[in-house]
Amino acid sequence: MNHLDRIGVILAGGKSTRFGRPKAMVQYQERYFYEASLDALQHHTDQVLIISHPTLTNQFRRNEGIRVIEDDPRYQGCGPLAGIFTAIEKESAYWYLTAPCDTPFLKKEIYDILFSYLDQEPDKKAVIPVVNGRKQPLIGLYHRSCLAPIQSLLEQQRYKVGFLFQLVDTLFVEDKAFEQLHSSFVNINRPEDLSEWT
After folding, report:
1. CA neighbor of 6 nearest in space, from 121, 98, 70, 71
2. pLDDT higher at 17 or 152
3. In which band, very low, low, confident or very high, does the pLDDT at 164 lie, cut at 50, 70 and 90?
4. Rounded Cα gap, residues 53 and 73, in angstroms
5. Is 193 annotated as a binding residue?
6. In the chain, pLDDT over 90 holds for what percent of residues?
7. How far apart are CA 154 and CA 152, in angstroms?
8. Which three-class secondary structure state does DSSP give residue 117?
9. Which H helix or E strand runs over 30?
10. Which terminus of the chain, N or C, has fewer Cβ atoms within 10 Å?
């Protein structure tokens, strides 16, 4: 699959209410949280898009070469599903690789694994890792054909990403390698969460 067929999407449209300040701009080991997602995605695509909360847009734009847009105004505040919708609607590609902005340990190998499974079942429309029995929908692959089903869910005010998997042919990936990469799926919601890993 050609890199031009892919766009990386960092989902940074949330309010970070529980953390108390914007999580994307928190630093861990001298880099911002979102930069871990950026690094992981840039191994798989030359194009990375940040879906930003309005209060962070200007800060993200200081990172030259990264396109930054805000959630579609119709769906601002409607969660990650709105961010995925905005990315697919605004930028043309076949596949959208999503990553949260608050996973400072995210590794590129996660996407290597997801693409290896997609290569075996290329007709799937979403590819989602499952770790310890839990789906991880914010670290996944979404085909451009997900646009209409996502918009339908948003219009119905059904904002959980999991609802999408009832509408599109989804491949759920359970792989033993995820056990060694389990920290990739750790999202930091509160300052004390980070202290557990430092």
Report:
1. 98
2. 152
3. very high
4. 11
5. no
6. 62
7. 5
8. helix
9. none
10. C
Q: What CATH number did the domain enclosing 26 receive?
A: 3.90.550.10
- Is 5 a known ligand-binding residue? no
Number of domains in the chain: 1
Please check if 102 is assigned to a binding site: yes
The tens digit of pLDDT for each residue in 130-161 reads: 999 999 999 999 999 999 999 999 999 999 99
Whether 13 has a binding-site annotation, put simply, is yes
Alpha-carbon span 173 to 191, nearest angstrom:
30
Q: Is 99 annotated as a binding residue?
A: no
> How many whole angstroms separate alpha carbon 130 and alpha carbon 184?
12
Can you say how many angstroms the Cα of residue 25 is from the centroid of all Cα atoms in its chain? 16
